[in-house]
């Protein structure tokens, strides 16, 4: 039970809390007539890259079947976009996809750096249809050649 002399303090704290929360509530309301600020690339990255795998170092560079499947799953929804954007922009996006995938799977970037052909091996074995469509969209004879950010 609150003592009578604490009621004014409690009331002041409640009012202060309500006043502090008001701008937050207003910012989140759908009644705002001002256009929303455009999303930044950072926001897009934060919200478009949820990871369901542990991001722990993978010192032996072994690629699990789950990781191989994930690469296919990450490439599949981008195929139409790569076709639409054209080979040059598609390759940039493809590089981003592979970097993202490698980072999500225990830092496989070193594995891909040592042998870019591993991406072709994975996709040939796990999703030849996705690989073929990617080759066509990226206008390349192999996926390793489209990986410009992995040395070579």
What does this structure look like?
The chain is mainly alpha-helical and 152 residues long. The protein contains nine helices and no strands. Helix 3 runs antiparallel to helix 5 (87-104), helix 4 packs parallel to helix 8 (128-138) and helix 7 (117-126) crosses helix 8. The radius of gyration is 24 Å and the shape is globular. 20% of the residues are buried. Residues 9-14 and 16-59 have low confidence and may be disordered.
Keywords summarizing the entry:
single chain, 152 residues, mainly alpha, 9 helices
Secondary structure elements and pairings:
Elements: H1 7-28, H2 41-48, H3 65-75, H4 79-85, H5 87-104, H6 109-114, H7 117-126, H8 128-138, H9 143-146
Helix pairs in contact: 3-5, 4-5, 4-8, 7-8
Structural class: mainly alpha
Pick out the low-confidence regions: 9-14, 16-59
Radius of gyration: 24 Å
Mean pLDDT: 73
Shape: globular
Relative strand content: under 5%
Helix content: 55-70%
Brief overview, please?
With 152 residues, this protein is an all-alpha fold.
